[in-house]
Design goal:
This protein has about 160 residues and is an alpha+beta fold. It has 5 helices and 5 strands. It starts with a helix and ends in a 15-residue tail after the last helix. The chain binds coenzyme A. Coenzyme A (COA) binds next to strand 4, helix 4 and helix 5.
Length: about 160
C-alpha cells in the first residue's frame, strides 16, 4: 500500500457504511422490525423475549458496555446487533460478547453485517476492552463464514452441556 493510501486508511472512520445506511442505538419504535427480522430468520416469534431484551439493552440507553444497535436503510430497519462487556465470566478478563446479529435476508451481502459488527466493536473499545467473543451453532456455516471474514478465530474455551 502506498504511503498516501495508508494515511487515508488510517484517517478513515472505523465504520464505512453505504451512503443510505445508518447504524444507531435501537429505539422503541424499532422493536416490531427487530421481531419481524428474527421471526423471518429463525422461524419462531419471541415477542416477550425481545421486549425483555429491549428493556435491558435498549432502555438502558446504550452505554459503551451494553449495546443494542440497529442498521437502518431507506427508513427501514434491516439488521441489528446486541452485545455487552462481561467481566471475569468463565474466569476471563473483561471482554465484549456479541450474542445476536441478524441482517434481513433481502439486505444481505451489502456490508451491513460488517458495519454492525464494526460498530459494536468500536463501542467495546470505548468501554476499554481489547477482545470480542461470540458463540455460534456448529452447523451454522453462514454465521461462521461471516465471523471468520471479520477476523474472528477459535477461542480457547469449550462449551459443555447436558440434558436436565
Ligand atoms: C451473517 C450475517 C449477519 C451477515 O450479514 P451480511 O450483511 O450479509 O454480511 P456482509 O455483507 O457484511 O458480509 C461480510 C462477509 O461475510 C461473509 N459472508 C456473508 N454472507 C455469506 C454467505 N452467504 N456465504 C459465505 N460467506 C458469507 C463474506 O466473507 C462477506 O464478505 P464478502 O461479501 O466480501 O465476501 C447474515 O447473513 C445473517 O443475519 N445471517 C443469519 C444470522 C443468524 O443465523 N443469526 C442467528 C444467530 S445470532
Amino acid at each position: 500500500m502506498s504511503r498516501r493510501k495508508a494515511a487515508r486508511a488510517e484517517a478513515a472512520p472505523a465504520v464505512r457504511p453505504r451512503s443510505d445506511l445508518s447504524i444507531r442505538p435501537v429505539r422503541r419504535g424499532d422493536l416490531e422490525s427487530v421481531i419481524a427480522i428474527d421471526t423471518q430468520v429463525t422461524g419462531l416469534e419471541k415477542r416477550d423475549y425481545w421486549r425483555a431484551v429491549y428493556r435491558r439493552y435498549g432502555e438502558a440507553a446504550s452505554t459503551p458496555s451494553a449495546q443494542f444497535l440497529v442498521a437502518e436503510a431507506a427508513g427501514e430497519v434491516v439488521g441489528f446487533v446486541i452485545g455487552e462487556v462481561r467481566d471475569w465470566e468463565f474466569g476471563a478478563p473483561p471482554c465484549g460478547w456479541v450474542f445476536a446479529i441478524d441482517v434481513r435476508p433481502d439486505a444481505r451481502l451489502a456490508g451491513i453485517g460488517t458495519g454492525l459488527l464494526e460498530s459494536i466493536c468500536a463501542s467495546f473499545r470505548r468501554a476499554g476492552v481489547r477482545k470480542v467473543r461470540t458463540m455460534l451453532a456448529s452447523d451454522n456455516t453462514l454465521i461462521l463464514s461471516f465471523f471468520r471474514s471479520q477476523g474472528m478465530m477459535a477461542a480457547p474455551f469449550i462449551p459443555l452441556e447436558k440434558d436436565l
